[in-house]
Amino acid sequence: MIRLIRYEFIKQFCKRSILALFVVFSLANLFKIYGEYKSYSFLTDGNGERSWHTLHWQLYEEYRGEITPEKVERLLAAYQPLVEATSDMTASTATDDPNTMTGNLYSDRNLLDKYFVTPMQYFYEYSGQSEQVANRARQSAALYGERGAVYQQRESGAIYNLYAGRTIPAFAYREMCNYYLNYDFSIILTLLLCLYGIIGTFVSERETQMDMLLLVSPNGGRKTTLAKILAATLFLLLTSLWFSLLDLIGFAVSFQTLEGLTLPVFAIPNFAEASVNISIFQYVLLSAALKCAGAWVIGMLWLLISMFWKNALLPFVINFALCMALIVSGAACAYSNFSKVLNPYSLLTNRVLLGKTEFVNLGGFPILTWQAAIWFALIAGLAVAVMIYFLSAENCHRCVWRAK
Amino acid sequence: MEITFESVSKQYRSKYALKNFTATLSEGVYGLLGENGAGKTTLINTFVGILRGDSGTIRVDGQDVRTLGKAFLPQIGYMPQYPIFYRDFTVKDFLLYMCALKDIPTREAQDRVSELLATVNLTDAQDKKIGALSGGMRQRVGIVQAMLSDPKILILDEPTAGLDPSERIRFRNLISRFAQGRTILLATHIVSDVECIAREILLLKQGTLLMQGTPAALERNIEGKVWNVTAGAESAALLTDMYCVSNMKQEGGQFTLRIVEDGSPIKTAQPVQPNLEDVFLYYCRGERHDTPDTV
Question: Does the predicted TM-score (pTM) go above 0.90?
Answer without folding.
Answer: no
